[in-house]
Amino acid sequence: MKRKQFKAESKRLLDLMINSIYTHREIFLRELISNASDAIDKMYYKSLTENTGISRDDFFIRITADKETRTLAIADNGVGMTKEELESNLGTIARSGSLNFKQESGEKARDEIDIIGQFGVGFYASFMVSCNVRVVSRAYGEEQAWEWESAGTEGYDIRETDKDSVGTEVILTIKENTEDETYNEFLEAYRIRGLVKRYSDYIRYPIKMNFEKQRKVDAPEEKKKDGEPEYEKYIEEETLNSMVPLWKRGKNEITAAEYNEFYRDKFSDYVDPLRTIHTSVEGVISYDALLYIPAKQPYDYHTKEYEKGLQLYSSGVLIMDKCPDLLPDCFSFMKGLVDSQDLSLNISREMLQHDRQLKAISSRIEKKIRAELLEMLNKDREKYGEFFKNFGLQLKFGIYNDFGIKKELLEDLIMFYSSNEKKLTTLSEYLSRMSAEQKYIYYAAGESVDKLDKQPQTELLKDKGYEILYLTDDVDEFALRVLDQYKEKPFKSVSGNDLGIEESEEEKKEAERAAKSNKKLLSAVKEALGDKVSQVKLSQRLKSHPVCLASGEGLSIEMEKVLNAMPTEEKVKAERILEINANHPVFAALQEVYASDREKIKTYAELLYDQALLIEGLPVEDPVAFSNAICGLMETK
Length: 637
Prior knowledge:
By secondary structure, the chain is of the alpha+beta class. It folds into four domains: 11-239, Histidine kinase-like ATPase, C-terminal domain (Heat Shock Protein 90, 2-Layer Sandwich), CATH 3.30.565; 246-386, Ribosomal Protein S5, domain 2; 414-493, Rossmann fold; 505-636, Four Helix Bundle (Hemerythrin (Met), subunit A), CATH 1.20.120. It has 19 helices and 22 strands. Helix 15 packs across helix 18 (601-615).
């Protein structure tokens, strides 16, 4: 019998199929099982259209591993193939019989069955792990069976053979181990079980396999060895796949315990999720999604090793374990999966060919997550508090990232500590409590709530009864700067140069008189401090404290601290404005020194500046000089 050559452009094309298309050789089993499922789908379609008397429960896929002969067989009782179909489907690379079937069968077939294969190359993944492949098939309505055999690029043979039933069996002769590669694993039952569970758990037909087990044997005491019970080996058939995906079932049919068990098992968590989101969408792009919000941060969440992404399935077959494009970074904590038959997959079915469908799904998923979080925020504040404790920082980073592209998505979800409420509050809640004359949403950024509550810059605002948001995470002020405003109410820092509070005419005149009469004194203090500050002025915000630092336009002092704490050589510096309380005894002492001994102005100026630095949580530039200046004043007194 003359060996036939592949009807492809060249042997190099087959070599490409075997060695380059698939990144993981274990994929071969997924591809062969998917092909078997497609064959059964075609047979099921015939049972619907030709009244064959075959029911869906009659179909199955069987896997058999034989270590002695080094063979792995995948058999199905699907539609089978004629000699011509074997030659056209397997002898021509990249010709898909399943794709042709989908195109020729019309809408009824697409509604009733779910063909997986499209490209006609999955079968050739077999050669990644095998040195020889045999396909024994008997087509529906045919008496004669045929055998197709190939050892790879040298071609293939087709011969008559015997087969008792309709269907197809693919028999792989697994390669021998080498120094660099191990192939024996694909003959191990536990490994096969794991691959089926990972990639093909939701194939709609049972995938069966025999397992060798042992059990105790009841035997007379005199026949027991050393008094130990005897065991016998036996064979038991098991179904390896669960077939019906949890997410394909109706929500009212699934209990909370089932959702939680699926989450713990599938995503290796030891606690139940905080919230489950199960949604099905039909339209131009149809998909099912089962999403979970974890109750705790993953142990590696803030490390480089953490990978975001949802599992991506196409018609129940796992395509990607973590598809990052399905989630924005702000929701990277989400676990779950998406299953769609409308995806344009690449030839290996390991990646997407086009991202238009994926972007459409991703957009809907992020809106769904936002809606669920808002519902939790409004209806179960305690649970939302747990969520925000774990993942609120990620939401705030999400606002800051990518120039605020996600700010509208996230602005209603973030919370900050409220000076009035003494707990976390949303921007919407803050807005609802604002008085009519208040124009801005005020905030203070610093190390802790306790320290911020004592900041001198907050005195005037507290005196007026204005609420202040306390920002204690490094990213907070950056996020608010990106937001710029909320519901047309701008954000304003309590340490900013201008608090935006309107003064009465009398207050304005008084401030102008004080500034004018002390102009030379303030200039002397500015001259003494040099470029440490951009301006020295009398404060309108201080009540009981003598001095504080304010920030100019752009970078704030707190942002300066955050940026300079990063491991970079280039340091930044915010514009600093020294504000002095004209109503404090310290200012009276300063006026007295200026009038009697101007040489001491430099010492007083340095002391006031260092005091302002300490209040801001910044280090004094010369601690020794600071200490000596204080001692000098004490000695004078």
